[in-house]
Design a protein that fits this description.
By secondary structure, this protein is mainly β. The chain is built from 5 helices and 18 strands. It is globular and about 70 Å long.
Length: 474
């Protein structure tokens, strides 16, 4: 009964916010022209017999406005657990509803200067308040559910483009790239508030939690502890060189003041996240595109050392190891990632990710994974005459460094994990979804995730977490 009441309240709050966004978009409708399919057949690079958004987005306007709403209901039944701790996935059945709504706007100030402003509202809850799993099952859920429904500025970005020749090329127009044509070779300088995964570790097969997979460590590299506040955003800059066959980008961003904290440390001399990525588009298969992305990062922050926390406990100075007690400004955490995607015959696509970080200092901003590997596929519904439908399946395995697992085994808490004890085994997650196009920009989906060794603990689980999802794209 309590779960049902919580679900009802979450849905009621989501409905209020949804009506606010719909009213705003409806008021803006004259700027779009009449209600019509986006990119109707023959009108642009996204041409299709079926629409994919509710409102038309003209290709020549200096303004961009669109919106998305994403509602997810997810739960799990009772599962075996020999013990539970403060940060465990709850072993009794639960059902939670989350909602994420975003209003995307853009304005072309000059030919080479763009302004992007996005307002967002995130509310509801994930199962167990997003605790107990490194590969949490719903990317829309923030790691601090008490932040509430209040709208906030998600992105405020200035982008300046320096053309380098080669003529112009068409690109799919969207909320992050509102221009329909861009120079083939160019330098882009972006500064402001954004999320690092907007630009780094992008993957067209495993990267969209609204229409594809939902798991944290599938849609993003779990071992990439990227700079972000609790909601996943940061302040900083990105400089990238883009060409048709390759790209390179560097980004520096502010780290949170505390692990998973809402406030960012503005002193980049002591705290910052630095990211470097090479992107390649080779052509090993003539008719099927390939993308390879190689990522490295290093974070500087007020982090604690797992080994120092363990040593403090073994010396009898504390009753339980606590990473907070051994934090020190200027500590570093570094890691690497590999990201591949490959088009295959018959509308089939594949992707894989691999990630590693040193695992000596605490997980600070994303999730508690020091090693990760994912492999997945998706398939369009063309064969059964549902070309905008999609089915996908993936398997991801996450792991911890030796110091990190010992810290948790001794009863230490991270910001996501902490069962009080640990019988270590790699966390293994299988996820599958079917997304169905319902009408214009409305999609429904079913998703199921099977988790073995939740929180790296063979004494708990396995867990089956099914979900339903409604996505509206304006």
């Amino acid at each position: 009964m309590a779960s049902w009441l919580a679900c009802r309240e979450a849905t009621r709050g989501a409905s209020i916010e949804a009506l606010t966004v719909i009213a705003f978009l409806y008021a803006s409708l004259p700027a779009f022209g009449q209600m019509a399919p986006a990119n109707p057949e023959g009108s642009g690079p996204n041409s299709s017999d079926s629409p994919v958004t509710i409102f038309n987005h003209p290709s020549t306007s200096r303004f961009w406005i669109s919106g998305q709403m994403n509602f997810i209901g997810q739960g799990h039944g009772d599962f075996p657990a020999e013990y539970s701790g403060e940060n465990s996935l709850r072993s009794t059945g639960e059902f939670k509803v989350s909602a994420l709504m975003t209003l995307y706007t853009g304005f072309q100030v000059t030919r080479n200067l763009e302004l992007l402003l996005d307002v967002e509202s995130a509310g509801g809850h994930g199962i167990s308040d997003a605790l107990g799993l490194a590969g949490f099952t719903n990317l829309d859920v923030v790691r601090s559910p008490d932040l509430g429904w209040t709208p906030y500025l998600a992105r405020g970005v200035l982008r300046y483009t320096i053309p380098l020749g080669g003529g112009e090329m068409e690109q799919d127009r969207g909320w992050l790239d509102p221009e329909s044509e861009v120079p083939r070779q160019r330098i882009e300088i972006l500064a402001g508030k954004f999320s690092l995964p907007d630009f780094f570790d992008v993957n067209d097969v495993g990267g969209d939690s609204h229409l594809q997979f939902m798991n944290w460590t599938v849609d993003q590299n779990g071992a990439w502890d990227y700079a972000a506040n609790t909601r996943g955003y940061t302040d900083g800059f990105v400089v990238q060189y883009l060409a048709p066959r390759w790209a390179v980008r560097y980004g520096m961003a502010l780290m949170p003041k505390t692990a998973n904290g809402p406030f960012l440390d503005a002193d980049i001399t002591r705290a910052r996240g630095e990211n470097l990525e090479f992107e390649l588009h080779p052509a090993p298969f003539r008719h099927y595109s390939t993308a390879v992305r190689l990522l490295s990062y290093i974070n500087h922050a007020d982090m604690g050392s797992y080994r120092e926390a363990i040593d403090q406990f073994r010396a009898g100075l504390v009753s339980t190891p606590d990473i907070v007690d051994v934090r020190q400004q200027g500590r570093k955490k570094y890691g690497f990632g590999v990201n591949l995607e490959q088009d295959l015959p018959h509308d089939l696509r594949a992707f894989t990710r691999w990630g590693w970080n040193d695992g000596r200092n605490e997980s600070f901003a994303y999730t508690e994974a020091d090693r990760t590997g994912a492999l997945g596929l998706d398939l369009k519904g063309t064969a059964w005459k549902r070309k905008l439908d999609k089915v996908g399946a993936t398997f991801v395995m996450n792991g911890l460094s030796g110091d990190h697992r010992e810290y948790l085994a001794l009863g230490g808490l991270g910001f996501v994990l902490g069962d009080g004890r640990l019988n270590y085994a790699r966390e293994q997650i299988f996820e599958s979804y079917y997304t169905a196009h319902l009408w214009r920009g409305i999609f429904g989906a079913i998703d199921v995730q099977h988790i073995t060794n939740p929180g790296y603990n063979r004494d708990r689980g396995p867990v089956l977490a099914p979900a339903i999802r409604l996505h509206v794209d304006y």
